[in-house]
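Request: Give me one sample?
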Amino acid sequence: MEAIAAACRAFVPAHEPEWRAPRSALARLSERASEGTSYDRYGDGEVVQRLEQRVAGLLGKEAAVFLPTGTMAQQIALRIWADRAGLGTVAFHPRCHLERHEEKGYQELHGLRGRLVGDADRLLSRDDLEGIAEPVAALLLELPQRELGGRLPEWDELVAQAGWAREHEVALHLDGARLWLCPPYYGRGLDEIAALFDTVYVSLYKDLGAPGGCLLAGPADVIDEARVWQIRHGGRIFSVYPYALAAERGLDEVLPRMDDFLARARELGAALAQLEHVVVVPQPPQTPFMHLYLSRDGERLREAALDIAEERGVWLGRHFAVTPLPTVHLLELPVGASTLELPVEEVVALFGELLERSA
């Protein structure tokens, strides 16, 4: 599968090219590294400090720290807020990453109790928060919500949820893994969105194209404490400058294009929705990210996608996830620079061929 993908001339999902050409990516990073940039030692160096300061500024926060994974960053943030509140309960949506993809690390490593809030199949609301009876140390919100197709609450609703946290003296943490996608929908800057939250986590590989890593931003004293927890978690890597250099490239070259990506996502989403056996969620897309529900068998979809990749040289995706309906499978479709390289008409025609071959 990897060899077939690497040979493709074009990619519809935005994230695929980042692993397709590691040599060229490393060459670009080497050029940046030769431009007077010093290497780091355990994250202590010019390039890492520059990235931390830059992202803290973009988010309007006092400080930020580089961490190797978002899983680590969010557990650390919630642990700090729980310790400061003297409470062991943290609240979040049933489909958040902590609950679905981390083997309950918040519970097993930190002894925290998760209070699930809201319905798994819809966005969280202020009314849901009003139903929390017990004291909680922190509330985690995710923008955009990946498991719901990259959906976002309306701005007034988001402000209302932040207001609930303030009124109840609950720390508010943002799972902003894909926060970079949100400003075009809200018509607000990253700093204005982040201002609603006490701490913010952002990914460096989702959407920006770095090989990995993330940043946790917030008050300086919280970030100082997070650096201690980073050591305790085994997350202080000897040298991280390649991640930082790649992230800077993403901030310079990818972040300014989010308006274009959202426009293409909406154009593509509208066109794909016209295909029989395809449902686009949400419609229209609110960010450069959407879910495609395909009324086909997953294994047949994978086989057809590989055949198209070999014959047409275009990669449509690889993960067709199961859904509650056995005859329907889900494809996540992030939209980015690679998506813009193909005309919408060609992408729609290829998905039509995918459906026909997998029938």
Q: What stands out?
A: The longest strand covers residues 171-176. Confidence is low (pLDDT under 50) at residues 19-24.
